Amino acid sequence: MRINLAILVSGRGSNMEAILRAISDGRISDVEPRVVISNRPNVRALDVARSYGITTVVIDDHGKKGRDWEYDKMLVECLYAYDVKPDNGLVCLAGFMRILSSEFVNLYRLRIMNIHPSLLPAFPGLNAQRQALEYGVKITGCTVHFIDEGVDTGPIILQRAVEVRDDDTVDTLASRILEKEHEIYPLAIRLFAQGMLKVEGRRVIITG
Ligand code: GRF
Fold first, then answer.
1. Is-above-0.85 flag for pTM?
2. For residue 16, how many other CB atoms are within 10 A of its CB?
3. Which residues line ligand 1 (CB under 6 A)?
């Protein structure tokens, strides 16, 4: 089945770029990137998306955060305008710094993915790499998960582990985690598009 993809961003866009590259070089098929939406104007992700020929839309939240169905309705309107709908679409959050309302989550249930730079359920929320370093774990990593009503709590699709080194800084650790993020996010999308993700309660089973 062909999937219409929207990617929601707020900043650098390296995960978005990894996804677009995987689509353009054929590692992911049957997925059509329809639109990249940012809640912030003038971010790098928008330039990168345009360089891939993808339509970009800014829905500026003027720094106002928090779950907000009024804001999310504008997202839904835009998604519908680009034919990314609950029956044919996938919405990928890639460094999108907003928490979605329960109305939005409900509408696109099990069709919204996120990438998080820790092995969830450890270190949810902001600055996950710093949290891991300060806690002193020896292994951290990254997680692709479906979005549910909580923050970083939805069913886990894929994870990759990354060793924490004694001489790591937040930056060196974050950059090794990022390499793994760029591997597993496109892979999760490919599995979704191939209909290979079966959700049983909290568990995501990879079929086939
Ligand atoms: C990544 O570390 C991702 O895991 C987190 O936000 C960061 C976004 O980076 N959710 P980028 O915009 O994809 O480069």
1. yes
2. 29
3. 11-16, 94-95, 115-117, 178, 181
